[in-house]
Specification:
- With 452 residues, the protein is α+β, with helices and mostly antiparallel strands.
- The protein has 3 domains: 220 residues, Beta-lactamase; 122 residues, 3-Layer(bba) Sandwich (D-tyrosyl-trna(Tyr) Deacylase, Chain: A); 77 residues, no CATH class.
- The protein contains 10 helices and 18 strands.
- The longest helix has 18 residues.
- The two termini are 13 Å apart.
- Keywords: Carboxypeptidase, Hydrolase, Protease, Signal.
- Its EC number is 3.4.16.4.
- It is an enzyme of class 3 (hydrolase).
- This is D-alanyl-D-alanine carboxypeptidase/D-alanyl-D-alanine-endopeptidase.
């Protein structure tokens, strides 16, 4: 047990550490989650770029508006007759922007078609993309367009339109294979066998060069035997083209025929559902979104707010209106809030530390509190927080936010004595870094609560 003198010395040291970290480029708010009472603040009303801590705002509004059990639906529909295993007309794939839709989901959708007895589609495959009329922007990230974190949401986004290159060197020659097999993509490979060069192949790109442009993909280099079975993802095509080609490949693998891609067109009003697939519940989608700070998934959730609650102003404007209405219902002051896409992949988005703290407090008291808190990563254990602030243990749950010149943390300290605290720390400027914002949170928690 610490002596009184030791405790006083610790408090003085913590106060000094906190003061040293809280300069004019940092905003901080710490309060009681149950009551919203402020315990510590610094520049708490300054509008700050929150980076990916903005995902907490979108998650809050989604749980409040859609409900934790909300699921996105994908379906295959047609108004054509079915006879002898042949669908005698066009097939529509209707997408709702399922953030978790992947190849397994596509297979499940196609299995439903097969179970109905359909083996051939005499008409074309048409994509109904009406659910998302327009996608919210992410201005300033155009140079990152080929990066997975910058992939825009889409009604028919399959696995974030990521394909995998699998490399083999097993004595039958060095080679690569693409999964899923995309019929429109030409894979050119010039790989040689580098033999037994070392035993480490942590990143196959040390030995091969991968490049893509449009539907052309090429790999070249000398592949060591140690890289047999190595894989690397590549981002290919537009979302509709990737979806159509993935559909064709998986349908052919099931022995299906026809359904040649015929473009995009809304399904006719009388089209009946032939097969359907439901996403995981929203609560589970948000765990994946926030643990791994997935921009694409967060942006899809944001747009879904506008699709489910249309107000006639357009999808993006309706999404913002729905989000702001949710905050207003819970008494969150949104005057500093500036939205672009709801994911924090933005140079324009802003929110104050106090407003974000109010939201965290409101979430703690909300009917969906358990689902919201479960979506926030635990220190030293989960996702983007796996290697940060581990000394505090999993009782500290924080969403990270990182951009150039931005570092942020927001979430909860679930104290052993049962007193939950809401914590927000945001740094904007050239000095912003994960280490610096971690130190600010550590010092703030030590000042208002016993150290772990």
């Amino acid at each position: 047990m610490r002596t009184l003198t030791a405790c006083l010395m610790l408090c003085v040291a913590c106060a000094r550490a906190l003061a040293a970290g809280l300069e004019n480029d940092i905003a901080l708010w710490v309060g009681r989650a149950k009551s919203g009472e402020t315990l510590l603040e610094h520049r708490a009303d300054a509008p700050m770029n929150p980076a990916s801590t903005m995902k907490l705002v979108t998650a809050f509004a989604a749980l409040d508006t859609l409900g934790p059990d909300y699921r996105w639906q994908s379906s295959l529909r047609s108004d054509a007759p079915l006879a002898g295993g042949v669908l005698q007309g066009d097939l529509w794939w209707v997408g709702e922007g399922d953030p978790a839709f992947d190849l397994a989901a596509l297979d499940a959708l196609l299995d439903g078609l097969r179970l109905r007895g359909i083996r051939t589609v005499s008409g074309g495959l048409l994509l109904d993309r009406a659910a998302f009329g327009r996608v919210a922007s992410a201005d300033g990230f155009e140079r990152d367009a080929g990066r997975v974190f910058a992939v825009a949401p889409d009604t028919h986004l399959v696995g974030h339109k990521v394909a995998w290159l699998h490399f083999y060197n097993d004595g039958a020659g060095a080679r690569a294979a693409l999964e899923p097999a995309l019929g429109g993509v030409t894979l050119t490979q010039s790989l040689t066998d580098a033999g037994d060069v070392g035993t480490d192949c942590d990143d196959v790109r040390r030995f091969v060069r991968i490049s893509s442009e449009g539907e052309a993909l090429s790999v070249s280099g000398a592949l060591p035997r140690a890289c047999d079975g190595a894989s690397r993802f590549v981002n290919l095509l537009s979302a509709p083209a990737f979806a159509a080609q993935a559909f064709a490949a998986r349908w052919a693998r099931l022995g299906g025929q026809g359904a040649v891609f015929g473009g995009e067109r809304p399904a006719p009003a009388g089209a009946r559902m032939l097969a359907g697939h439901a996403s995981p519940p929203l609560s589970q989608v948000l765990v994946s979104t926030n643990f791994h700070s997935n921009n694409t998934m967060a942006r899809a959730v944001y747009l879904t707010l506008g699709r489910v609650l249309p107000q006639g102003a357009g999808l993006v404007a309706d999404a913002e209106a729905a989000l702001r209405a949710s905050l207003a219902r819970h008494g969150v002051d949104a005057r500093t809030l500036v939205l672009e896409n709801g994911a924090g992949l933005s140079r324009r988005e802003r929110v104050s530390a106090r407003a974000l703290g109010q939201l965290l407090s409101a979430a703690w008291r909300a009917p969906f509190a358990a689902e919201f808190v479960a979506s926030v990563p635990a220190a030293g254990r989960d996702g983007t927080l796996e290697k940060r602030l581990g000394a505090w243990g999993p009782r500290l749950r924080l969403k990270t936010g990182t951009l150039a010149s931005v570092s942020a943390l927001a979430g909860y300290w679930l104290a052993p004595d049962g007193e939950p605290l809401a914590v927000v720390a945001i740094a904007n400027g050239e000095g912003a870094s994960a280490a610096r914002i971690d130190a600010a949170v550590d010092a703030a928690l030590r000042r208002v609560h016993a150290a772990p």
